[in-house]
Specification:
Organism: Halocatena pleomorpha
Biased composition (Basic and acidic residues): 61-91
Shape: flat
Keywords: DNA-binding
Protein name: AbrB/MazE/SpoVT family DNA-binding domain-containing protein
Largest sheet: 2 strands, antiparallel
GO molecular function: DNA binding
Number of strands: 2
Strand order of the largest sheet: 1-2
Distance between the termini: 40 Å
Number of domains: 2
Length: 91
């Protein structure tokens, strides 16, 4: 499927897509593309529905610390992968 922007930069999505994914999207910009990520009407409720009771008994501070550690680890892994990829192309 393809869509075109109008002269004001607006994209028009079909009623079927809006019904399926909603009307709010987060735009993620990559080097070679854009992605539209649907935003739930109530994002917090969507998280609660997805996780259920998995977080009960865990403080916000603990969740924040765990999220920061996970993000740091993922960033380090991404950096290592980028170094390997760069090294592989220059050899």
């Amino acid at each position: 499927m393809s869509v075109e922007a109008d002269s004001h930069g607006r994209l028009y999505l079909s009623a079927d897509l809006r019904q399926k994914y909603g009307e709010k999207f987060h735009v993620v910009e990559y080097e070679d593309r854009l992605e539209l990520i649907p935003i739930d009407e109530d994002p917090l409720q969507a998280v609660r529905d997805e996780l259920g009771d998995a977080l009960s008994g865990t403080s916000r501070a603990e969740l924040r610390e765990e999220a920061l550690e996970r993000a740091k680890q993922e960033a380090e892994e991404d950096l290592e992968q980028a170094k390997r990829d760069t090294g592989a192309t220059t050899e």
